[in-house]
Design a protein that fits this description.
binds adenosine-5'-triphosphate; single chain; 6-stranded mixed beta sheet; 944 residues
Length: 944
């Protein structure tokens, strides 16, 4: 069997060989125009050459994405583009070609005659690694049937860039089935978040363009997305597949040119999206045609020769004109020619005194409009609205549509809900010029009937790919059924509905949280099956109102500092605070509302977040996301499912506690008997995760704090913390901390092995706020942060900090100053590498704002921390060695105390209660003391 290195060398040789041929093809193509007979032919050739060069791929692209070996030993390489040698032998076949299909369709159950499928991981044309699926082995390994292969996992784990990437390398069999479904149908693809609906829809376009190339060109295809941001995010995929001229638009782009920016009441917006508006507009438009009632006859002149028409006569001509197929304007032209014909026949001798030229009369009887002018007049006239509304609308609805017109048409500002109406009118007035043989509608689940009409009006054939997720359907037109959407997309073609079942984007830990919303958000929908684990559990950050923005921004900055794309998904009510915080901290950020996305910090509204994804997301204030939409739980589901790796939830509601569990379901505050909506009752679930940069941060499940340091014993509504081993009972105390290779590790015997636990590292909270020279004030002021000052003794301490119940604001603009020295912002502090004898392996953010929790009762009382520190058997195994070990032990002791506090928080969570600010403060004060004079406190404790 060949070694990996041998395989790589052989494959690279082939890649280089193919690349040489590709460059030869390129040179030949580039030379072609110069050989043309004349300038016109050369220009045509050049265009053709450009298109063919696109199809060839760039010189830096990998020539192939994979290869397949059939059972007879024949090999075929698959890539983005076909590459041939001098004899026109195919070296690499393009992925859309029928010959490539088996690369995607082969499965363990039906190998399609393949023995092996190899997927390459490349940088440019350099192969970095490859992964093989050996079908016979796969079939044998039943356990692996649903397991994603390595190549797929690699792709899913890569950093996101703010632009969607193609998935040619790793299209899955079920996805490929939809990609190559026949053109002549209306294909509906339902699938949960991250199941690849958008990817499938885009690759389907490319596949159709290749396989129906005789009848379908790029100009025949339209892709419609929900927002400009989404369109920007997805628009590079098709060019990367060699399909450059496919039209990609967002739904807000179908309208005549008007000024946008009017905001409207949701009730009005909803009404304007209603399909009944189509009837109203049509009636209103044709209500403007005809001779006004009460006018039996009219007179006009044709070149000075008077003509008289009776009203009946004109109305008959109007009726005849309206029967001809065509737009309002075309019918008007017919009307005009009929009128002119009659006029010519009937015109008498020239006579003065008839003032109205025939064209003016025609304009009065059948006015010509622009869509905007017509709609402005209609909305501005209650009478016209009432007439057009007929029986189909209530008086209230008519009143909602009525509005004062702007002074001039050029000053009229239009709302988003007006746009489909303008578009509909434009279609009535002039017809729709741009029609497409295939239309892809992404995120279709939210579109209003009038928006869907805009799409349908552009279909020449009824062939469409409609993708979306009912469970993510929000907004004023949130749907529970696909039929409610499809009734507005009429098609003569068969309608086929398919479902994508595997979730590729969202890691298991995150989806386990998000899917708990589904029973409330979309009861009939089956959750997708996630295919991979993420690097971390979701992190819940408990904050108070003042601390929210800081915590969210800090979390985002931390991710951004690792080069990740991170979205702060923020409901409108907190947007300002977040933007201010970003400004104060001088953080460069991008706004989805301006269609900017990329690495670093992005600020995104929950609605804008649809269809997008990021390496990390910070979801701000779940309850307000829920409040932002009638289907707020779905909106939160959307927000929670945007991450490919890390999720932070930042909110004022504690993620635990009997009085207010993390209210992912929103609504009324829960009582003790209310089932916990996110399953935090479930003892197997981590109540929260302590924030950490570790690859897998320590969660509340990771060790057994109660066994390690003590336990909470509820008594009369107050749970008391009882440290185990108090009074020096080392023998029976399980280890609380241990010194191992200069690291402080924490855990009990039942905890994870030290290698895992040592990620826990040192708890260095609180210390950063230590006063320079007044140890009595040594106490934490802001437990949201966890950095250690580079030099603790240089820090100033706000004089009134001990009286504050809210975290001290450490921002530039509101930084407290003590003795003229401003308190430095948290971001200025570098955690130390070394504390005493201990190497700092990790800093962990303290669960924030416990000191400011407002949950009244029941409460947890935390006993004095002193006895807790005695259980340091790894350091001080018996009293005689106390003195010698005192400095190290003292430091370890104080740090242990901090750990114990965190354990206390954890336990508080586990007993589903919260710590009273006063109690908590007592603990923190005590730790402050210990930290202020560690040796003394340590010695005391060990002696005591
Ligand atoms: N076969 C695959 N190989 C590699 N990556 C894939 C594959 N299928 C999907 N993905 C990736 O999964 C992520 C989610 O895909 P996509 O955005 O198409 O999902 P979606 O179903 O449209 O999600 P949403 O409902 O949130 O809009 C993308 O990063 C996409 O590239």
């Amino acid at each position: 069997m060949e070694s990996v290195a041998e395989v790589l060398a052989a494959e690279q040789k082939y890649f280089d060989h193919v690349s040489d041929h590709r460059e030869r093809m390129r040179r030949r193509l580039l030379e072609a125009p110069t050989a043309a007979a004349n300038a016109g032919a050369a220009a045509r050739l050049r265009k053709d050459v450009e298109a063919r060069l696109e199809r060839l791929g760039g010189p830096d692209e990998a020539v192939a994405v994979g290869r397949m070996d059939d059972e007879d030993g024949d090999v075929l390489y698959v890539g983005h583009h076909t590459i041939t040698d001098d004899d026109s032998e195919v070296l690499v076949v393009n992925w859309q070609a029928p010959a490539a299909a088996r690369y995607y369709t082969a499965t363990h159950a039906d190998t399609a005659g393949l023995a092996l499928k190899r997927t390459f991981e490349c940088r440019g044309n350099l192969i970095e690694s490859y992964s093989d699926v050996v079908f016979r082995q796969l079939a044998a390994a039943v356990a692996e049937l649903e397991a994603p292969d390595d190549a797929l996992l690699d792709d899913l784990n890569r950093d996101r860039t703010g632009q969607m990437q193609d998935i040619v390398r790793t299209i899955q069999a079920a996805q490929f089935d939809l990609i190559r479904a026949p053109l002549e149908q209306l294909l509906v693809v339902q699938g949960g978040p991250g199941t690849g609906k958008t990817a499938v829809a885009l690759h389907r376009v490319s596949w159709l363009l290749f396989n129906y190339r005789d009848t379908l060109s790029a100009a025949d295809v339209l892709i419609v997305g929900p927002t400009p941001t989404f369109t920007r995010y997805t628009r590079t995929v098709l060019p990367s597949l060699g399909d450059i001229s496919v039209v990609q638009r967002d739904i807000g782009q179908f309208h005549p040119p008007v000024r946008r920016g009017r905001t409207e009441d949701p009730e009005v917006v909803r009404l304007k999206g209603d399909g009944r508006l189509a009837g109203l507009l049509r009636r209103a438009l044709y209500d403007r045609v005809g001779v006004p009632a009460g006018q039996p006859a009219v007179e006009a002149h044709l070149d000075g020769r008077p003509v008289v028409f009776t009203a009946d006569e004109i109305n008959q001509i109007v009726a005849r004109s309206r029967q001809t197929p065509g737009s309002f304007t075309q019918q008007r032209q017919i009307f005009r020619s009929l009128m002119v014909n009659v006029g010519m026949d009937r015109a008498r001798e020239r006579r003065l005194g008839v003032r109205t030229p025939l064209d003016q009369l025609i304009e009065r009887i059948w006015p010509s409009f622009t869509a905007a002018a017509f709609l402005r007049e209609l909305f501005g006239s209650r009478d016209r609205l009432i007439a057009a509304a007929g029986e189909a609308f209530t008086a209230r609805e008519v009143a909602l549509l009525h509005r004062r017109a702007g002074e001039r048409i050029t000053e009229e500002i239009w709302s988003e809900a007006d746009l489909p109406l303008l578009d509909f009118l434009e279609g009535l007035l002039h017809g729709i010029d741009e029609r497409y043989a295939h239309i892809v509608v992404d995120e279709a689940q939210d579109l209003s009937p009038m928006q869907l009409r805009s799409v349908a009006a552009r279909s020449s054939s009824g062939s469409m790919t409609v993708v979306g997720d009912i469970a993510q359907s929000t907004g004023l037109w949130a749907r529970d059924e696909w039929d409610d959407i499809l009734e507005h997309l009429p098609s003569q073609l068969p309608q086929v509905t398919a479902e994508l079942r595997y979730g590729y984007r969202v890691p298991r830990q995150v989806f386990e949280l998000a899917e708990r919303l589904l029973p409330v958000a979309a009861p009939g929908i089956t959750a997708p099956q996630v295919v991979r684990d993420g690097p971390a559990d979701p992190v819940f950050r408990l904050v108070d109102d003042d601390g929210r923005a800081a915590v969210a921004v800090e979390a985002a900055m931390a991710h951004a500092s690792h080069g990740r794309s991170v979205a702060i998904i923020c409901p409108a009510v907190h947007r300002w605070a977040i933007e201010s915080e970003l400004a104060v901290r001088d953080v460069a950020w991008r706004a989805a509302s301006r269609s900017e996305l990329g690495q670093g910090v992005n600020l995104v509204s929950p609605h804008e977040a649809k269809g997008l994804e990021f390496d990390a997301t910070v979801v701000v204030e779940p309850k307000d996301i829920i409040a932002e939409d009638e289907r707020g739980h779905r909106l939160l589901y959307v927000a929670l499912t945007r991450t490919t790796r890390y999720l932070h939830v930042v909110g004022v509601l504690p993620p635990f506690g009997a009085t207010e569990p993390l209210s992912l379901t929103g609504g009324e505050p829960s009582t003790g008997s209310t089932p916990d909506p996110v399953g935090l009752d479930d003892p197997d679930r981590a109540a929260f995760t302590w924030e950490s940069d570790a690859a897998s941060p320590v969660t509340s499940r990771d060790f057994e704090p109660a066994e390690a340091v003590g336990e909470f014993r509820p008594s009369g509504g107050v749970a008391e913390f009882q440290p185990v081993g108090a009074g020096g009972d080392f023998e029976h105390a399980p280890p609380v901390s241990d010194l191992e290779q200069d690291r402080l590790v924490v855990g009990s015997e039942r905890a994870r092995p030290a290698s895992d636990v040592d990620r826990f590292g040192l708890m260095v909270g609180y210390e950063r706020m230590r006063p320079a020279d007044n140890h009595e004030q040594s106490r934490p002021a802001d437990t949201r942060e966890q950095s250690w000052p580079a030099d603790a003794h240089e820090q100033s301490w706000p004089a009134d900090a001990h009286e504050r119940s809210e975290p001290v604001d450490t921002h530039e603009h509101a930084r407290p100053a003590v003795g003229g020295e401003p308190v430095r912002p948290v971001s200025d502090f570098e955690p130390p590498r070394q504390i005493g004898d201990f190497e700092v392996t990790r800093t962990i953010t303290v669960v924030p704002a416990v000191g400011t929790a407002t949950v009244p009762s029941p409460r947890v009382e935390v006993a004095e921390p002193a006895p807790m520190a005695v259980a340091v058997p790894g350091v001080v195994s018996d009293p005689p060695t106390v003195k010698a070990a005192a400095p190290a032990a003292a430091r370890a002791g104080s740090l242990t105390a901090q750990i114990i506090e965190l354990v206390a928080v954890e336990l508080a969570g586990q007993v589903r209660e919260n710590v009273q600010p006063a109690q908590w403060q007592a603990v923190l004060d005590r730790v402050g003391e210990l930290l202020a004079s560690p040796s003394e406190a340590g010695a005391d404790r060990h002696q005591g």
